[in-house]
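Troubleshooting log. The previous structure file for this entry was overwritten by mistake, so regenerating from the original sequence record. Sequence copied from the archived sheet and checked twice against the printout by T.R.
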Amino acid sequence: MNQDHAARLIARLLALRYLPREDKEVRRLLVDAGFRDEVEQRLAASGLRLLAHPFSAHVGIALTRECESAVFEQNDTWQSSNLGLPKDAVALLVILWALIILPKRERQLSGEATQQEEQSEMFETVKLTPLAHEASRGIAENLLMEDYGKLLGGKARLQQFALPQLSRLGFIERKNKVIHEGPLLDLAFDYAEMAPRILNGALSDLLKQRGILREVTLEELHNEEES
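Regenerated output below.
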């Protein structure tokens, strides 16, 4: 009996929420244009879209822009999350994304540029993507509490509720009192849309003061969005 590989992959993404790039079916998705088109068309028919960022170690799915209001707009108010996250947990998620993913992306972009320069002309069309686990670095929990605890409901609330919740959902991993990137953190927000808001917004000055973030150029953002 012929297997419907597109349906199988979509079912796995719906049930598991994310899959690693090393997964056999995901690898096919990333290199087989016809297979990817079929998967994306089927997702779009159900109001969903594929999340497959070239620098992320995992792929996932999300709502299309056109269908977001059907899920998030309830009783004349816009829900902050469809995962049961309260607003302070969503705010913490944004902060962790800015602290972990933005510096990681800078290192990845820098590493990719170096790799491309080192390639010979024969291989100049080959795209080498720096591995996510090599570029990602963690944030010490005590530093997070010191910098943002009071802003997000207090240290006790963060430690007992917000961080465990984000960990259970796969956004972060906590090891030896250090917060690391989870499978879904890199996919949590649209990088091309969110990064400029953070870089030009209220968080930028605080992050730069701590030496965590430099100002990514608009050219880098544009180049990555096109990739």
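The two ends are 37 Å apart (CA to CA). Archived copy saved in two places this time.
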